[in-house]
């Protein structure tokens, strides 16, 4: 087998799931029964609903920082509303683009891109946390650094999956 996985393992997994007919996207061979119970008990709708509320709350709280907004001419409420509005509109259009992308690429590559985006988000959150703990030594993280970390992590996640494949 070449170092870059062709996606055959992923297609076989999708076929086994389709044959089973229950729509469960977990590979029973790769996780223990305890792991399966933990993931099923998380209930993604509740988890992402919580993330949505935390994101909005943090955005509103951050727009009230007088040091960061010293040069702003708008009120903190208007800035928060604008940021939330931009996020909703751009998120909606990103969803449409992802839907088009899914139609034009095969499932294996789309799954790699989606999983690597998740890796990028998780990595950026934890690098940001580590950076804030080391802020006296590193200084304040700029948005440009955060975007660079997101792009780096997204690329790394993509190539880790391409090299190892989903079955590893």
Folded structure, characterized:
It is a single chain. With 168 residues, this protein is mainly α. It has helices spanning 8-20, 33-42, 44-62, 76-104, 107-133, 135-138, 143-164. It is 74% helix and 0% strand. The radius of gyration is 20 Å and the shape is globular.
Distance between the termini: 13 Å
Q: Runs with pLDDT <50, length 5+?
A: 1-6, 20-28
Shape: globular
Q: Describe the biggest sheet?
A: none
Number of DSSP E strands: 0
Estimate percent helicity: over 70%
Alpha plus pi helix count: 7
Mean pLDDT across all residues, rounded?
A: 78
Structural class: mainly alpha
Brief descriptors of the model:
168 residues, mainly alpha, globular, disordered N terminus
TL;DR of this structure?
Helix content is 74%, strand content 0%. The protein has 168 residues and is mostly helical.
Topology readout:
Blueprint: H1 8-20, H2 33-42, H3 44-62, H4 76-104, H5 107-133, H6 135-138, H7 143-164
Helix pairs in contact: 3-4, 5-7
